[in-house]
Amino acid sequence: MKPALICALVACLLLQFAGLALFAKGMFPYKVILPGLASDEVDAPKVFDKLIFVVIDALRSDFVFSAQSNMTFLHQLIISGCALPLTAYSTPPTVTLPRLKGLTTGSVPNFLDAVLNIAESDTSSTLATQDSWLAQARRAGKRIHMFGDDTWIKLFPDFFAAADGTTSFFVSDFTEVDNNVTRHLDTELSPSAEWDFLVLHYLGLDHIGHKSGPQSVHMPAKQAEMDDILRRIYQYADSNPETLVVLCGDHGMNSVGNHGGSSEGETSAAMVFMSPLLQKLDTALEWPAAPISGQFQFYKTIDQSDLVPTISSLLGFPIPHNSLGHFIEELLPLWSNLEDQRAVLLSNANELARLMKSTFSGFSKSSKPGDMYCVYESLPTASFYTISRFISQCQSELSSVSSNYNMNYMLCGLIFAVIALGAAVYMYLSHVYTTFSRFDSLSFALFCVLFGAAMFGSSFVEEEHWIWYWIGSLLILCYIVQCAANGNTNDAVLLTIVLGIFRILRRWNQSGQKYAGSDDIAKYLAQDSAFLFTVNCATYGLFLLIVWRYIYFKNMPGMLDAASASIVTFTIFTFKVSMAIALGEEVPTIVVEVLEDLGLHAVQPTLVQLARYSYFFIAMTIVYALFMYKTQMGSLTELGKRQKQFDFVHGLVGITALGLSIQSRYSNIPVWGLFYILYSILYQVKGLSNSSKMIICLILGRSSFFAFGNSNSLSSIDLSNSYNGIDSYSVILVGLLTFIGTYAGPIFWSISVSSLGLTMDEEDAYIILSVLVHSTEAICVCLACFFLRSHLFIWTVFSPKLLYASVWEIIQQPFFDIGLVAVTWRIVSSI
């Protein structure tokens, strides 16, 4: 690459990074909150003295309320009237950190908390200085004990008289993470226990969802375990009627067990109030319950923020500042005096009115009858219905207020992004456009325009995979017609096979929102364990042949070459099968028995070792291939060198696919075999120019991201392979493995394109094409977020897309689409 081009490329990347960073800083500022603690106590006697607050992470409503639920003791409490069941709406982003903020302060958390959620060392999201029901309890001298997810300790430093935190991110652990909480119950529920508030946060159910989904074979047993814990807790409350027990989920989960998005399953969490005093409400309900609407809306649906004024009022605390919650009116009869009930609602209304005054400058200036301020002034003598309606209106108005965008940062970010796009277009026109055929130039320009325009439509962002599938299918079809018209029948046949495989990849995993959870090839294979195992055996058999033929063959004496190739592939295959067994996926019984006979039990220590061996063997195979081919090239003829180069590039691509399969789900392993076949066919098609192959690889790189089931929703981030080879949480290692697992497809095609025999100018051209695609995405996504910042789906669709675009531009682009391509090309071309 020429120095001038390098300078232009570096400048373009820096402008991209600066633009995205400035735009994100303007779009995701920290939320402005009212300082201090509320001091206006509820003018009604408290109902309870003590609170046991139980959070079961990812407790979706149907896990508790549906006929399939295994929480039998809790069902009896509902039927007897000792429990009030509710479905609590969890505001996106549905991840733990922002949801705990909502459950404790009653406010709408910042979207940026979804990013901070993964950084365990982050302290910028602390609630130490914000008002919450825990802050009110601490000010009142209450002793608070906490056991479970250490996110609580990060949010509320020095709040707890006793605490034992467990990391929430080691999702491979289903049992110990909960046992570490339960082991404290005997002490905490004894008559001599010294606490006023007891917080318990269980993580195992969420971990099961991440690893094997809501239908996992581990789920019923975990529900029964949680139900038994609730039985023990309720027995304490039954003997101490001044104790209120609250059970809730911080969020739900989607059909594959993940969360972070806005689907009904992710936003529908269970919430249950439990106490023998609730029998006076005379609200005994039936179980099992039928959904009132949708699939997960059982009983009455409330907002999670409604918990905050409800707990505060029941325990006699001031309602925290910044709370947008509405007292749960079904609990009002716990006060037998109507004036006390009125006082509870008025306190709720007064706190919301303060927020309205601080948020809307014109709120207290309205004077027309029917205006909210006039209604507020009449509340002391108004009916219960009027007070309740005023609270609901305030809640609606305050919840819909947009973020306090910093327009200066956003505009500066847009300017940098526009300049970056201009630099990318300049590089394309000056170094690429003139070397491409007219068809390739037009097709590339067309898909850039279509891709960029699609970023302004919420449905297109949600279903972005269809853009790449449509473009890819149409382009390959055009190349088929082109080859046939030129008389290259063999190439036309090969590209027809490419089109067929591409069609299979489209159906392998459903992506997006519209058809999320629908049937696909991966689900079909998962239902037939023998067939899936056979297909996976065939896939790893293919890789065994590739590693043996292209890397070890004739480079080792005797049968050592076959043995070496077998060790590499067998170790990885054994790890993936053992992991599938541990996750409760169906594997033929004979396979399970064989693994047990070999001592390869599907338990955490064995899985960690198998994963580490897999990584080690992959690394050693790559090093061996590099060493052998580098040392042997000098003694070969020109024909021999070409053969060695052919062997090396095919071996390198094969070992890359084999290594990346470690970070894929068991049902997605066959995709790697299809990817390798696609690469091999493209390598053999001689009727296509390298520029055409580069464009196809670009499209395959993007579409492969979605082929594994990813989407532009945070909920599609798959953590099931983020702990392979790790026995404790590390934000760097987990982040790296999560990235590799999510972007494994694009990483594969970054290596593949550089192994197609490109010249130096063609390698430069591919990098420029990639940069232009990324620059187009950056500016279009930023513009969409800017102009649609008041859109209904700004936080559920466009903001997550901005985060994904940032990862594409800041990580995938420089390290893989540019760095890995350049390094691989230089290795290949030097042999």
TrEMBL record:
It is found in: Endoplasmic reticulum membrane. The chain crosses the membrane at residues 407-429, 441-461, 467-485, 492-509, 529-551, 563-583, 610-627, 648-663, 669-685, 729-753, 765-790. The keyword DNA-binding does not apply. GO terms for molecular function: CP2 mannose-ethanolamine phosphotransferase activity. Pathway: Glycolipid biosynthesis; glycosylphosphatidylinositol-anchor biosynthesis. Residues 403-827 form the GPI ethanolamine phosphate transferase 2 C-terminal domain. Keywords: Endoplasmic reticulum, Glycoprotein, GPI-anchor biosynthesis, Membrane, Transferase, Transmembrane, Transmembrane helix. One of its GO terms (cellular component) is endoplasmic reticulum membrane. It is a multi-pass membrane protein. One of its GO terms (biological process) is GPI anchor biosynthetic process. It comes from the Eukaryota. The keyword rRNA processing does not apply. Its main location: endoplasmic reticulum. Belongs to the PIGG/PIGN/PIGO family. PIGG subfamily. Ethanolamine phosphate transferase involved in glycosylphosphatidylinositol-anchor biosynthesis. Transfers ethanolamine phosphate to the GPI second mannose. This is GPI ethanolamine phosphate transferase 2. It comes from Tortispora caseinolytica NRRL Y-17796. The lineage of its organism: Eukaryota, Fungi, Dikarya, Ascomycota, Saccharomycotina.
